[in-house]
Amino acid sequence: MLTGKQKRYLRSLAHHLNPIFQVGKGGVNDNMLQQIKDALKARELIKVSVLQNCEQDKHEVAEELAKGTGAELVQVIGKQIVLYKESEENKQIELL
After folding, report:
1. 76 pairs with which residues across the strands?
2. Which one, of 39, 10, 9, lies nearest residue 22 by Cα?
3. Which helix (H) or strand (E) is 81 found in, with range?
4. CATH code of domain 4-84
5. β partners of residue 81
6. What are the domain boundaries of the chain?
7. 31-81 tens-digit pLDDT
8. Quick one: pLDDT band at residue 95, thresholds 50, 70, 90?
């Protein structure tokens, strides 16, 4: 689990990121989870956008993505979800 201080730090890093995935009408599926896992391995910190036609609540989507990818949910802000997962091969972010 991340501490409050670590989450604040990650939020500040994520502020400048653009969402690289979008969850739409189909919701979360296995293919999407695999792509997000790969992106997390490469980048550690990503943003996912929840489109207006998504039938699930954004918080449900966030929980599903975090569980399905083994990532930490950093924040849900507006229609954006920020996820973090420490990468073993490609570590870039140093948490205190």
Report:
1. 81
2. 39
3. strand 80-84
4. 3.30.110.60
5. 48, 76
6. 4-84
7. 999 999 999 999 999 999 999 999 999 999 999 999 999 999 999 999 999
8. confident
